[in-house]
Amino acid sequence: MLKTSAYAAAAAGKPLAPYSFEQREPGPHDVLIDILYCGVCHSDIHQARDEWGGSIYPMVPGHEIIGRVRQVGQHVKKLKVGDMAGVGCMVDACRDCSSCRQDLEQFCLKGVAYTYNSTELDRKTPTHGGYASQIVVAEHFALKVPAGLDPASAAPLLCAGITTYSPLRQWNCKKGDRVGVVGLGGLGHMAVKFAVSMGAEVTVLSTSRAKEADARRLGAQAFEVTRDEATFKRLAGRLDLIIDTISAQHDYNQYLSLLRPQGAMVLVGVPPEPAPVAAFSLIGGNKRLAGSSIGGIAETQEMLDYCAKHQIVSDIEIIPIQKINEAYERMLKGDVRYRFVIDLASLSGANAR
Ligand code: NAP
Ligand code: ZN
Ligand code: ZN
């Protein structure tokens, strides 16, 4: 077994604190990655605080992982020792069901092994995420990080990146489309970058007036403050596609009113509480309300390669692991431009090898 140093939440109300755990030695199809950087996703906060229910403790969060391959099993083909590798939200799935065969491992019919707050496919061994010194993962679920991407700024691509790239692709975002991005946080700022790179005219809808200059720097053509009711009247029926990244409860009906007939709004943000949608918000205009969950492994690799080609990475603030609780509080205040990334060197040489 491999002794691994980490930070974990011991219970829902507890701050994250130093923790160590044992994980398996790499098997013939596994890779062992020394984690260099891990992005801090709002899903880490939702789960560490049990806002979605069913959290498993102690919990080592983190699913935006980048590191260097230290060891590979004898049958591993995709990666070799010394390669830069990524791990996102999943570490295993059956690879045989109809979802897995369609490269939609996130919908594995037998149940996905998520990177943390989950169990391995034995349904017993808890999985632990990237706020840690190292991770062992099945080769299939490790991504190749293309040369030319800065590893710290690329870490958030493993969740924030794929979660916004995938719905833009699913809804065929293209040149000239009018795309609204709701919420300018970690996911939102990636949605802006991707939509702009696909040729869309992007409008950012935000509660924070102070983010206007950033929105325009990221390539948005328009910026609207959603605290102002007049915004919803002015923009009514204007947008082809909306990507909603808001992490807290809000009125979906208001945003649906911004779509043109047959336009689509895709939810990627996961507020803990449900919110009502009026039938008339959809029926008037044949509007579509959809959701999107991360992306499969093949699409995640496609997204990383796309990012290398288009020079797209996340705007980040690097923190030592000791600042993680402070970072959570700052995220809840919207005080991050636009993703915290933990430098795991701050865990020090505590990694017992
Ligand atoms: P984040 O960086 O904290 O950004 C969330 C943004 O939402 C904030 O920056 C803020 O934008 C806006 N917001 C927050 N509270 C709000 C409120 N009460 N009313 C209106 N707007 C509010 O979070 P993130 O990491 O991007 O994650 C966003 C959500 O996506 C989370 O719920 C997360 O769990 C979810 N998620 C889903 C998937 C998936 O597969 N579907 C994957 C990853 C994350 P402004 O300041 O611009 O208003
Ligand atoms: Zn995430
Ligand atoms: Zn499956």
Automatic annotation (TrEMBL):
Residues 13-342 form the Enoyl reductase (ER) domain. InterPro entries: ADH-like_C (IPR013149), ADH-like_N (IPR013154), ADH_Zn_CS (IPR002328), CAD-like (IPR047109), ER (IPR020843), GroES-like_sf (IPR011032), NAD(P)-bd_dom_sf (IPR036291). Keywords: Metal-binding, Oxidoreductase, Zinc. SUPFAM superfamilies: GroES-like, NAD(P)-binding Rossmann-fold domains. It comes from Archangium lansingense. It comes from the Bacteria. Coiled coil: none annotated. This is NAD(P)-dependent alcohol dehydrogenase. SMART domains: PKS_ER (SM00829). Belongs to the zinc-containing alcohol dehydrogenase family. PANTHER family: ALDEHYDE REDUCTASE. Its cofactor is Zn(2+). Pfam families: ADH_N, ADH_zinc_N. The lineage of its organism: Bacteria, Pseudomonadati, Myxococcota, Myxococcia, Myxococcales. The keyword Metal-binding applies. The keyword Metal-binding applies.
